[in-house]
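Section 5: illustrative case.
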């Protein structure tokens, strides 16, 4: 039975990836004239995508069951049972009520009784085909019945919701589906909530019709479309690179820069993370890749294990903001803001470089403070190797070029994947077995499963918030709490985002914070003199940036857990050290919103709203001051610059760093004057210590 399920999983996964790749070619092929619903209609395409995620997810969970604690499972089971209870109160035939209870038993009962989980996974995989087939057959009628769905519509809608929640639980744990149910139950029981956050309360049939029947809401909305239109192609690209054995080549190219310096392990981690970040868009995957290949280097030099794990975890998360592949949030921004993806690439490059500089700076100061010994070059290659395999970067250049030429992302990434395959079989030193191609297609969609399920959940949450009007209520409360201060509003949102990121993936964190806090922040930014368009871009880049930082913020830091698993350290302590390495990065994002000068870090907002000469000056000045601030803050955190720093010196230099981060002429001048004086003092002291030999014993 296990072998049969594995084969079925493999075959359906290959077919699923081929389906998505065919969608790229479909507009140019003869089948386009036949108007086949799963190929031509947005709603049915998204339903097909959701079906594949659900079906493959349950099969995968049959093979690889991850144990979950009852403590997290019980709230989800109770909350979904409440939804089913509301369904049973509807005036419909008993057969429909029995069907609802049976679906709940298949999807949610195994969360409480793990012994039946394997059997339930098969049942759920089969059940997932029913609401999909029903929608394909009745898609035209369903749209018109969204407000007043028929009994079978309701059963299929409830089944789809429970099946999606069940697969999210199995793949990612209980927190995300519990979040979904909080918003669903808020919409159902909002009329019994006292005070400002009360809502009229919506009937269960209306909610189910909204989530299943409407094209742009619920399960099959715009956010789910992000997974269909973008994410599947990048996970497939990553799988192709891995199966064509280009991962090792990229790692070897990074190792060419190791050299003999004791700081080389950290430097190599930075280079490797950026190179892999161009392809992966996954912080945890990038972290694990870097950790596996650089662990021997850190051990050889003698880094403290927690410091090594902290550096790797922090640098691994850079994959989320490394163009041209920046994870699901960037593509969601394309859809929600209706802006070109090239804008997001341009806005992300600067903060990514500052993020990288902060990690490299921490690494260099740590090595000097600890006086670690140099090491031999262990790369085993020379720069002829780089010239020999430099063609691996051609597909990435192709992606960037075609995106800036206006081609769709799915076309550019699909072409890049094909190009990698062609290169692999043209190069005799690479040339993997032919079976690696279907293996890559299979892994392409399987790697997407946890990400796509979280994206679908985020779509459900967004739909519930729109119905209840919660976002506008939250914005007014936030405005009152912040006292119309952009700084307080930004700090509040940053903390809120980090707390959310402890329990949900970055894409869900971004969706929630953008819906609840973005309107207030944008309004306050405009009040503080930032042009409206620049305020919108800066707000969403800030939310994007902070959703990524949750990856390295304890106690739940996925990149820290990935690094700890390889380095052999405690995950919580690793998260603490990762946050330590990331201290400057927490401040970079806040500066986007505090003034027009702060938005200069994103380049696009000031270029669009200011004369070019003024924009260039602001960009150059802000990057210089931010770089200096990062250097000072890392010196304060580590306690070293040219020499060990006293507590007073660390306090002074740390305060200067914060002043330099704050985009204001007054704080910039004060910070620069104090830092220049401080650095001059340390340099003079260092020169004197070199000239004055220590007295003989």
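Designed sequence:
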């Amino acid at each position: 039975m296990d072998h049969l399920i594995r084969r079925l999983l493999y075959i359906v996964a290959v077919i699923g990836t081929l389906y998505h790749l065919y969608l790229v070619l479909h507009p140019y092929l003869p089948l386009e004239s036949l108007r086949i619903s799963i190929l031509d209609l947005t709603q049915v395409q998204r339903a097909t995508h959701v079906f594949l995620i659900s079906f493959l997810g349950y099969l995968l969970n049959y093979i690889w069951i991850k144990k979950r604690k009852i403590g997290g499972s019980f709230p989800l089971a109770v909350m979904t049972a409440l939804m089913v209870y509301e369904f049973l109160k509807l005036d419909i035939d008993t057969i429909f009520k029995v069907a609802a209870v049976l679906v709940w038993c298949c999807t949610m009962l195994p969360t409480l009784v793990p012994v039946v989980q394997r059997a339930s996974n098969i049942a759920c995989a089969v059940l997932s085909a029913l609401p999909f087939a029903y929608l394909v057959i009745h898609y035209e009628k369903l749209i018109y019945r969204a407000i007043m769905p028929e009994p079978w519509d309701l059963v299929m809608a409830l089944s789809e919701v429970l099946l999606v929640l069940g697969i999210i639980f199995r793949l990612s744990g209980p927190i995300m589906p519990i979040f979904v149910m909080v918003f669903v139950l808020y919409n159902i029981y909002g009329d019994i909530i006292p005070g400002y956050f009360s809502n009229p309360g919506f009937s269960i049939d209306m909610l189910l019709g909204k989530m299943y029947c409407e094209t742009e809401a619920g399960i099959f909305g715009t956010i789910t479309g992000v997974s269909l239109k973008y994410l599947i192609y990048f996970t497939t690209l990553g799988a192709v690179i891995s199966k064509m054995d280009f991962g090792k080549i990229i790692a070897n190219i990074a190792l060419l820069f190791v050299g003999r310096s004791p700081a080389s392990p950290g430097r190599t981690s930075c280079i490797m993370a950026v190179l892999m970040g161009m392809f992966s868009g996954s912080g945890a995957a990038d972290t694990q890749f870097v950790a596996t290949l650089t662990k021997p280097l850190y051990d050889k030099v003698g880094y403290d294990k927690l410091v090594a794990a902290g550096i790797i975890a922090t640098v691994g998360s850079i994959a989320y903001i490394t163009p041209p592949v920046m994870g699901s949030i960037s593509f969601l921004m394309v859809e929600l803001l209706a802006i070109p993806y090239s804008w997001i690439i341009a806005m992300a490059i600067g903060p990514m470089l500052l993020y990288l500089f902060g990690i490299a700076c921490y690494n260099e100061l740590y090595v000097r403070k600890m006086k670690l010994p140099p090491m031999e070059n262990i790369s085993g290659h020379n720069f002829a190797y780089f010239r020999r395999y430099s063609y691996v970067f051609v597909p990435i250049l192709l992606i960037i070029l075609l995106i800036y030429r206006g081609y769709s992302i799915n076309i550019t990434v699909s072409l890049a994947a094909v190009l990698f395959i062609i290169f692999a079989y043209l190069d005799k030193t690479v040339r993997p077995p032919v079976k690696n191609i279907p293996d890559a297609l299979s892994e392409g969609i399987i790697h997407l499963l946890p990400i796509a399920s979280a994206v679908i959940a985020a779509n459900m949450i967004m739909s519930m918030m729109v119905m209840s009007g919660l976002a506008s209520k939250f914005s007014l409360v936030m405005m009152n709490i912040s006292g119309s201060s952009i700084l307080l509003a930004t700090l509040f949102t940053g903390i809120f985002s980090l707390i959310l990121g402890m329990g949900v993936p970055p894409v869900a964190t971004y969706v929630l914070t953008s819906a609840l806090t973005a309107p207030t922040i944008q309004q306050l930014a405009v009040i503080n003199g930032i042009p409206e368009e620049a305020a919108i871009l800066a707000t969403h880049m800030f939310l994007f940036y902070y959703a990524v930082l949750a990856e390295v913020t304890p106690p739940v830091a996925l990149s820290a857990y990935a690094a700890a698993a390889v380095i052999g350290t405690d995950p919580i302590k690793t998260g603490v050290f990762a946050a330590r390495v990331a201290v400057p990065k927490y401040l970079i994002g806040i500066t986007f919103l505090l003034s027009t000068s702060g938005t200069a870090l994103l380049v696009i907002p000031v270029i669009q709203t200011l004369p070019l000469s003024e924009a260039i000056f602001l960009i150059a000045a802000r990057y210089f001051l931010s770089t200096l601030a990062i250097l000072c803050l890392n010196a304060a955190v580590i306690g070293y610059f040219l020499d060990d720093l006293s507590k007073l010196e660390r306090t002074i230099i740390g305060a200067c760093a914060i002043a330099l981060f704050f985009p204001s002429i007054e704080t910039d001048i004060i910070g620069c004057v104090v830092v220049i004086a401080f650095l001059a003092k340390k340099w003079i002291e260092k020169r004197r210590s070199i000239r004055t030999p220590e007295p003989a014993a």
